């Protein structure tokens, strides 16, 4: 089915079905994305107040064969929220649907509308004495509907899982404009296909999530943070196993940091206090969140002793106060800012099976240095999830523009290597429009065929987020 | 598309494509199911040795429009593994594909072929110093492929989740006979629709799982078991929150037991030692699995003290030895056997949001006693998951046959009430063929429409497990 542009006749007819001020001309902010690679186009932005209005909008678009681009907080990094070409779509923003509909502390469940900002969801959980563990840099802007549609990751995946793992049920409008009432609060419900997980991570191409039943967790009673230096990534992987053996699920984060990141910090953010002098080749940040009656600092001290004995750790800093904990986390959290100030040639959101990371990291170094020995690599990230930010930078004193001609080859070399190692070229950001070609290149052909069949079955007119995930 | 019976011409042609002895006449054991409600029919049972042979079989069935009924360990309780009517299908058993292909202790991952028996998977994990936490009564017979196809539950769901939550990747043959190579060991991989979770819980109607990458966990260093008496289910729900606040993820099981179950045990299994005399109206079994340096007995003693102070618990037994732990678990584990010896009028595998359980339980009692005041209810199960076995029994000294005329009404009353309370009529057993009508009655119509569209898209000839889940 060929999509049509949202023309004045379509917009007038849709407007007549909706309360005043539901359709607007789109501000420019709806047509941009954070990396500035795409400019969107849209005939209007629809701002419904409730699920029924969302259904009216989608149904009209289905009948009229008009594309609908769901727009959450606009923080996605792969262009899923902007449509630069093709028949002019409408944007659909659920920013007016941001209620916390209910909190059930006894059940560890919270029901939020899709337009609720992630930080608001976290705060509502905290108010109920619970933790909503999804946490990521854009949490002050990103909306929970977008987090679910993209299966967001973040810093707590090791312990609590991705957005997918934090959702019990959904309310959604399917591409024909019909409402699926699936806001289950049940932990066990084996009644048919898993439509919930199909919509989560579909990036708005199979419907629009309008509300979600979210899993909460207890707030860990005793948290502790440490940074240990390690010989190499192999030692870091062994240390992770040791930590897990000692505290089980009590390890909340396990982040790998390379000297290149510490060097960038020293160069660009010299006021930031670093834990080691001289700066070590590799270190790991460990966060524990333990229950009542357990002492996280003692547990970290025990771990450090065992790690020294096993020759896995060489030096270490264990935070003795909340201020010190924040100071250690600041090292990890400012690496992306230092990276931005340096300016990468190419950034890669990759994952690799954890046991293969020790070989993958040097293999990538070797391949990139063979391409151009001046390139520098800052490799850091969520080692506990096998998710690395494997980012390639210009040589010292040189600019990223000097490497424009190499960028495509750098990306190809890293992604090819990732697949040789059984990994993924999109660990947490999704496909959007930026990685559609990568998915065609690296994806399993049978999975892609199944995806196309499912898309055609649920969205026969192809109106939902056209061009995202698949052509 | 109308299905055809697997006639001699089809079987001969298929045989010619496969090694000798791959197709056999089906033993009677393949045509029975544990509850004896259905007798299956099949022209042959196919026993492939590898994924390529599975693909050959499915492809031939797709081209020939012949039904394929996947048969795992045969332990399903809803008739998903037997097809009593319609064009004669072939059965597909993966019992020859039972290899543990690989174990990655550092990654907490194990790759098993679908025909591996669950107990074999558990043992392979234990050999690697890890825990595969899926655990259920049929684990000595059930196969991991069937566990995943039905999204099995069991006793450790509270802590570790359902089968779905224990799977990282799948290899599967889709209904057209093509192989999806999706055996990812990645914790984070956002590259397109979640085909894995679509196949898990689809009960063999969308393809055949041939192998799975499974998540392992550390073995908890210190386990402890206790039974506390509680005033009523409301106190049990409050106690669960208290336990979670104290030990976080350290609570592995939280099982509710009613006096009716203890009475049945006393009547039918009098040699079994019971923890309390007189038998209490309600009690809960609590299992903790804590990390190194934590004492589970001490934690349970602390909990008991706090629960007494809060007037949630009245009496308690904390196991002081492994023998005592087993003795407490034996009480819980023998209740189903006592139930079988009594003989239920109707059994219900239900779930309800946890906070509504305190009102649901007496509402069910009231409704059933209004139907027939002689009926007895034994309500017990996985309170931590909101999953109850809410089983209705004959009056004392009467037989189940006396209530044959009431059975349908009993089931209807319970299931209607479950849906009034936002629950599910199949918490862990699935739909199979037994609950197809219930799914039509209680399922969301839009979800059912989406399921039909997905089924048609992926299995256009309707060959996979015809008549299961949907008509």
How would you sum up this structure, described in words?
- Two copies of one chain form a homodimer.
- With 471 residues, chain A is an alpha+beta fold.
- Among the domains of chain A are: 100-218, Uridine Diphospho-n-acetylenolpyruvylglucosamine Reductase, domain 3; 220-334, Alpha-Beta Plaits, CATH 3.30.70.2190; 343-428, 2-Layer Sandwich (Alpha-Beta Plaits).
- In chain A, 34% of the residues lie in helices and 20% in strands.
- The first copy, chain A, contains 14 helices and 18 strands.
- The first copy, chain A, has helices spanning 8-17, 51-64, 118-127, 144-149, 157-160, 195-199, 233-247, 259-268, 296-309, 322-342, 357-371, 407-420, 436-442, 445-458; strands at 23-24, 44-46, 68-71, 90-93, 100-104, 109-113, 130-131, 167-173, 179-182, 208-215, 217-218, 222-230, 251-258, 282-290, 313-318, 349-351, 376-382, 387-393.
- Chain A has a five-stranded antiparallel β-sheet. In chain A, strands 1-2-4-3 form a four-stranded mixed β-sheet, covered by helices on one side.
- In chain A, a hairpin with a 4-residue loop joins strand 5 and strand 6 (109-113).
- The longest helix of chain A has 21 residues, at 322-342.
- The radius of gyration of chain A is 23 Å and the shape is globular.
- Chain A starts with 7 loop residues before the first helix and ends in a 13-residue tail after the last helix.
- The model of chain A has no long low-confidence stretch (mean pLDDT 95).
- Chains A and B meet through strand 9, helix 6, strand 11, helix 7 and helix 14 of A and strand 9, helix 6, strand 11, helix 7 and helix 14 of B.
């Amino acid at each position: 089915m060929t999509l049509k542009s949202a023309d004045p006749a379509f917009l007038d007819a849709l407007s007549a079905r909706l309360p005043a001020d539901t359709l607007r001309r789109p501000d420019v902010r709806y047509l941009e994305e954070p990396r500035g690679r795409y400019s969107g186009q849209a005939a209007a932005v629809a701002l419904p107040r409730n699920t029924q209005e969302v259904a009216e909008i989608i149904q009209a678009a289905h009948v009229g064969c008009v594309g609908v681009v769901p727009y959450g907080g606009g923080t996605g990094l792969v262009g899923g929220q902007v449509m630069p070409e093709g028949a002019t779509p409408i944007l659909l923003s659920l920013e007016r649907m941001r209620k916390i509909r209910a909190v059930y502390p006894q059940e560890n469940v919270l029901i939020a509308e899709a337009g609720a900002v992630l930080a608001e969801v976290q705060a509502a959980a905290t108010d109920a004495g619970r933790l909503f563990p999804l946490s990521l840099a854009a949490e002050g802007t990103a909306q929970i509907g977008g987090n679910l549609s993209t299966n967001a990751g973040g810093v707590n995946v090791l312990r609590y899982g991705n957005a997918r793992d934090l959702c019990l049920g959904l309310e959604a409008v399917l591409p024909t404009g019909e409402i699926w009432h699936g806001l289950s609060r049940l932990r066990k419900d084996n009644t048919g296909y898993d439509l919930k997980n199909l919509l989560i991570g579909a990036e708005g191409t199979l419907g629009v999530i309008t509300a979600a039943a979210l899993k909460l967790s207890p707030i860990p009673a005793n948290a502790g943070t440490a940074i240990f230096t390690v010989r190499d990534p192999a030692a870091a992987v062994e240390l992770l196993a040791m930590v897990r053996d000692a505290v089980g699920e009590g390890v909340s984060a396990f982040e790998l940091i390379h000297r290149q990141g510490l060097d960038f910090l020293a160069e660009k953010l010299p006021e930031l206090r670093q834990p080691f002098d001289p700066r070590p080749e590799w270190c790991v940040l460990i966060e524990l969140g333990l229950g009542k009656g357990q002492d996280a600092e003692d547990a970290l001290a025990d771990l450090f002793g065992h790690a020294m004995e096993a020759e896995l750790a060489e030096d270490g800093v264990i935070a003795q106060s909340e201020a010190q904990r924040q100071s250690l986390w600041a090292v990890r959290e400012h690496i992306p800012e230092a990276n931005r100030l340096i300016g990468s040639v190419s950034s890669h959101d990759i994952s690799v099976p954890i046991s293969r990371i020790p070989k993958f990291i040097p293999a990538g170094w070797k391949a990139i240095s063979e391409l151009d020995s001046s390139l520098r690599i800052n490799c850091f990230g969520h080692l506990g999830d096998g998710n690395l930010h494997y980012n390639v930078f210009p040589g010292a004193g040189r600019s990223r523009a000097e490497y424009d001609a190499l960028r495509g080859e750098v990306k190809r070399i890293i992604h090819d290597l990732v697949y040789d190692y059984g990994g993924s070229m999109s660990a947490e950001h999704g496909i959007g429009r930026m990685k559609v070609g990568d998915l065609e290149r690296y994806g399993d052909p049978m999975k892609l065929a199944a995806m196309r069949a499912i898309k055609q079955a649920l969205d026969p007119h192809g109106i939902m987020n056209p061009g995202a995930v698949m052509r």
